[in-house]
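Backbone-to-sequence.
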């Protein structure tokens, strides 16, 4: 007989001083005394003369092992085994039955009823101790396995929480990066594609309906993506309404995917067209980081977003060139700021009734040592993405303040300068304090420095913009709404926030000569703004007929090439002095 070393019995971990408990059940006292003698150094011994008394003890004490005689009055061993087998607290306690020699049938029946082993009378102490220790070792092993199983389940559950997006059940952004890298590296012979998907105007859906509708759309899309990738790839929710997929190129059919996605969205019966746009990057370099793969797919998506005829695009050489251009801009931006390669140009705003300059807008320019003047339309989107625009904004604001101070020092009547504020700065808690500190630094009045906000900033975060505007106006600043009419929420915005001046999107001005509707809309906006106590500036004025129309509808403030292009600060100063 093989006898293992003593194990820590019981279904809980015991400390060094705590002993396991053994219950000896036998109606013959001498038998209980003999068995007790064998184990008293290892166990705390409890005794019972029959099954009924044993149950009473089990109700009040934790017991680690039972030595059970089969033949007893009141309640025998077989009956006790039956009761214990049905009781959730007692069914896992190991039982070793004690029998007389020659009772093979009783031993077999006891084992079938759940006994762990048996010992026969008369007792051989070595055999009895080995059998009990083996039973306890087996039980401890079972308990250890159970503990390991429960621990593994907990770890798996925690891993799932860490790796997945809680709303949709897809992988989250971080997990997407690691899992995609593993998938591509482990399957070098497979050509993979990264697909970046975005919902058009998802913020509008949330505003028009409610968050529950938005969540339903996201969860439905996630379930569809999970079905599309199957076991060949993976899908993730990257951010609020953006998803990413990695799957083999030969399994990807974008036309079919978009059609299926449209059908699934229509089935939700939401009273608005829900359109997904996608960009695809075919992985041609397995050593590229997944973040860069996603960036390229995202860049491809941006070329079609908002286009009703094309819903997806592949990353190609043209976009690769654009990416290299972006990298060059990022590489040179710090040095350009340190070496004064950035500057402001000023475009005057005229009163078309008097042809006099009433104010000006400060526009950032980059005078690159090798490439010459770079348009803000090229570098601003890049800097908004990497956050550098916050420093560039502050440079432009201070440059405008410096110019305002020069006007005063030259004895001129100060012409207000308006400066643009990127949407990134809308989230800066110190933005208003910084603006007021600039006024103090250059000894300026708040009316001299005007603040231009874009309508898109309001769309991004209406509540934040309302708070910022309130603080700016309380500090005395004049606030302009730039590009008014370019977005979906123009009229709704006027209802919710207080502006001083509206700058009409130049598209309106460009269309008034050819579109009667545009002219009617333009006239209505100007009248409405005046009714609300706001001034109006028309941007993009280039022809005399445009100027005459604006003058006739009461829009006297204009900005555009008809009067002047943006010009360097020194040139503008000369113009002010000559005027």
């Amino acid at each position: 007989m093989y006898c293992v070393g003593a194990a820590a019995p019981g279904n809980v971990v015991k400390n060094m001083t705590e002993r396991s408990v053994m219950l000896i059940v036998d109606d013959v006292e001498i038998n209980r005394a003999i068995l007790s003698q064998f184990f008293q150094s290892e166990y705390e011994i409890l005794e019972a003369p029959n099954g009924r008394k044993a149950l009473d003890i089990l109700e009040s004490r934790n017991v680690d092992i039972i030595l059970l005689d089969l033949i007893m009055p009141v309640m025998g061993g077989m009956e006790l085994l039956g009761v214990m087998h049905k009781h959730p607290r007692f069914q896992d306690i190991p039982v070793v039955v004690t029998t007389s020699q020659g009772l093979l049938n009783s031993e077999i029946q006891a084992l079938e009823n759940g006994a762990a082993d048996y010992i026969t009378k008369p007792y051989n102490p070595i055999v009895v101790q080995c059998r009990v220790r083996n039973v306890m070792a087996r039980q401890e092993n079972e308990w250890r396995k159970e503990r390991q199983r429960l621990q593994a389940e907990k770890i798996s559950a925690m891993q799932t929480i860490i790796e997945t997006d809680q709303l949709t059940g897809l992988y989250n952004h971080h997990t997407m990066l690691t899992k995609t890298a593993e998938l591509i590296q482990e399957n070098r012979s497979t050509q993979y594609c990264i697909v970046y998907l975005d919902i058009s105007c998802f913020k509008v859906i949330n505003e028009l309906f409610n968050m529950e509708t938005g969540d339903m759309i996201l969860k439905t899309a996630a379930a569809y993506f999970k079905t599309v990738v199957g076991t060949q790839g993976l899908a993730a929710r990257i951010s609020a309404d953006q998803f990413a997929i990695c799957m083999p190129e030969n399994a990807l059919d974008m036309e079919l995917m978009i059609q299926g996605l449209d059908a699934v969205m229509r089935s939700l019966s939401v009273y608005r067209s829900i359109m997904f746009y996608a960009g695809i990057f075919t992985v041609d370099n397995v050593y590229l980081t997944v973040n860069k793969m996603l960036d390229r797919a995202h860049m491809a998506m941006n070329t079609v977003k908002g286009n009703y005829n094309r819903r997806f695009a592949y990353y190609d050489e043209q976009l690769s060139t654009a990416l290299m251009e972006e990298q060059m801009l990022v590489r040179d931006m710090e040095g350009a700021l340190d070496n004064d390669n950035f500057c402001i140009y000023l475009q005057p705003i005229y009163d078309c009734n008097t042809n006099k300059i009433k104010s000006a807008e400060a526009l950032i320019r980059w005078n690159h040592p090798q490439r010459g003047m770079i348009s803000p339309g090229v570098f601003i989107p890049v800097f908004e993405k990497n956050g550098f625009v916050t420093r560039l904004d502050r440079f432009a604001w201070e440059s405008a303040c410096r110019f305002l101070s020069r006007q005063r020092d030259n004895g001129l009547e100060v012409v207000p300068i308006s400066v643009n504020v990127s949407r990134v700065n809308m989230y800066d808690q110190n933005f208003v304090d910084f603006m007021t500190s600039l006024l103090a630094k250059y000894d300026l009045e708040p009316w001299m420095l005007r603040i231009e906000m874009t309508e898109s900033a309001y769309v991004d975060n209406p509540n934040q913009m309302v708070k910022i505007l309130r603080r700016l106006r309380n500090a005395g600043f004049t606030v302009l709404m730039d590009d008014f009419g370019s977005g979906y929420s123009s009229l709704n915005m006027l209802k919710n926030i207080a502006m001083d001046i509206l700058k009409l999107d130049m598209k309106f001005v460009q269309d008034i000569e050819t579109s009667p509707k545009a002219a009617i809309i333009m006239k209505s906006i100007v009248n409405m703004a005046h009714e609300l106590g706001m001034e109006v500036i028309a941007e993009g004025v280039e022809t005399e007929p445009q100027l005459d129309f604006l003058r006739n509808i009461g829009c006297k403030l204009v900005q555009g090439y008809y009067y002047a292009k943006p010009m360097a600060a020194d040139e503008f100063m000369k113009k002010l002095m000559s005027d």
